[in-house]
Amino acid sequence: MAKCLSAISLIVLFCFVNNIQAKELEVGVSFSIAPYVIQETNSGLELELLKSALAVKGHSVNIQHLPLARTFHALKEGKLDGIINTKQNMLEGVFYSDVVISFQNCAISLKDKHFNIETVSDLQDKSIVAFQRASILLGKDFTNMAKNNRQYSEQAKQIIQVKMLMKQRMDVAVMDKNIFIYYLRQSYLTGKLTKEEVEQEVICHKVFPPTAYRFAFLHADIRDDFNFGLAQIKQDGTRLAIENKYQQMLSLTLDDNVTIRLANYPGQ
C-alpha cells in the first residue's frame, strides 16, 4: 500500500513539475505573409509549426502581430519570448533555433515586358517593390542595388506588391513565390484584380538563393524545447500533414475559367 501511494505521489509530482515548466509564450509575428502567416485567422504554415513544436513540451503560444521592425525591438526589450523569420546573428543576445523554413524569393515580372533578369544587377534600372527589410535580408548585392535605385520601395503588406505588379505600376515585385501565388489568388477572389489582370503570364526570376529562416528566442531553454519539438513533429508526420494542408491553398486554378500562368524562364 505504501509503495502504491509512493508511486502515485511521484506521478503527481512529475505532472506538477511539468505544469510549472510549461509556459504561455508571447511570440512576435509580422503582418500577414500568407500562406506562412495569415493574420485574419491567426493561422498559417509557420504559426502551426510554431505552436505544434512548442506544444510537445507543453507550451502554449500567444501571437502578437506587429510590424517586422517592432518585433525585433520588442524581443530585445524582453517584451516578447520569441519572434519568427530571423537569420543567424541578426540580433545579439538571443538564441536561434534550427532552420524552420526556407523561402524562395524571386524577382517577379510580367512576361510581356520581356525583361532580361539573370542577376541582381539587372534590377538596377527597373522600378521595384520588395517586401519589408528585403534590402537587409537578400544579400550585399541587393542591398547595394536598393541603395542606388531611386525606383526601389518596400511594402509591409505583400498583397499590395502583387496588385502593383499586375496593374503594371511597377516593373518587378521581389517576394517569395508561394506568397505571390497566394495573394494573386486572394486578389482575384476578393475582386481586387480582374480576370485579365490575374491571367497575365509572369516569370519568377530566381536571382536569389533560397533564404533559410530560424526563429529567435529570449531564453535558451525555450529555444531548446522548440528545437526538440520541431524534430519530433517532423518524425511523427505532423509537419508533413501541416505542409500538405497549406499546399492546397496554392493551386494555380482559381475556378473553371481562371488560371494563374507561371512562365518558364530559360535556364531556370
From TrEMBL:
Pfam families: SBP_bac_3
Residues covered by the Solute-binding protein family 3/N-terminal domain: 24-250
InterPro entries, alphabetized: Solute-binding_3/MltF_N
Domain of life: Bacteria
Protein name: Transporter substrate-binding domain-containing protein
Organism: Shewanella aestuarii
Taxonomic path: Bacteria, Pseudomonadati, Pseudomonadota, Gammaproteobacteria, Alteromonadales
